[in-house]
């Protein structure tokens, strides 16, 4: 299972939570709109004169009892309706990046959903410039490396995705790739073949959500029709041995989101999560927070709760997960090498 050639020293289990928190790591799967905490939703609603369907922060939080992906998405899109100005997008992203820095995230690749905003009349420039300015300022002031990935909403037609990509082209240098999110089942990756081909021609990185609730066939078509470099979620791959072999052989990273999977009932409990099976089969699995304000925690909470609940996970798995996240990031090679040295030193010191 170890692609790193680094046998870590024996580490006492009591020291593992501290190590999980302190190790340098990359976050590759988080939706910036999913970092809107209820308090910020209410603050922005007041600032912008937006009416909410919930009477209080507590009432909103109580609604966070999800049964599947769609039950979450309905509330998530309602929450995003408070975002109107460039400053709103900036404040949201800075708040997330503060949390990421506190969790020793050295690299954050953040998804954003422009269609959620442009459909409400918010300009593409407002969305992208606000988020971009937050990345630049956080990098300068806090040293975190941050980048943006533009996601297409898969419940909408491909024509809308094509138009969104064209509308974003004046800001081509502000994002590093494209992704595919929203309601998965019934919207297979191949529905977006043309827009991904166009993004590839533009030199953008390609990722897609596949195998969160959808079948292994969606992971195959994300790889073979869209040509993605990473699979977001991908936990349903375990149902297809040939696919497991392919993912391991090509070291295609899976950006797994444990607390999201628990809250959206992808697994009965967190203890039933298949992350160890993925790692032990040689897959480049990583840990991520997805929509941290909705699912009960940011990066380090995902790591510590996962390792608390899944019995067989060891320090070697922790090292592998952090190593994979850095390896699979779209950062510059020199940065990745520097972070991997820091990771190794962190485990040698432990
Ligand atoms: N948008 C935000 N979070 C998502 C998830 N977990 N799956 C699909 N689309 C999303
Ligand atoms: Zn996601």
From TrEMBL:
- Going by the entry's taxonomy, the superkingdom of the source organism is recorded as Bacteria
Q: Which InterPro entries match?
A: A_deaminase_dom, ADE, Ado/ade_deaminase, Metal_Hydrolase
Binding of substrate: at which residues? 291
Key word Calcium present: no
The prosthetic group or cofactor this protein requires is: Zn(2+)
Any GO CC annotation of this UniProt entry? cytosol
List the Pfam families.
A_deaminase (PF00962)
**Where is the site described as Important for catalytic activity found in this chain?**
233
Swiss-Prot/TrEMBL keywords: Hydrolase, Metal-binding, Nucleotide metabolism, Zinc
Q: What is the free-text note on the cofactor?
A: Binds 1 zinc ion per subunit.
Q: Where does Zn(2+) bind?
A: 29, 31, 209, 290
Q: Which PANTHER family match?
A: ADENINE DEAMINASE
Per the similarity annotation, which family is this?
Belongs to the metallo-dependent hydrolases superfamily. Adenosine and AMP deaminases family. Adenine deaminase type 2 subfamily.
Name of the protein in its database record: Adenine deaminase
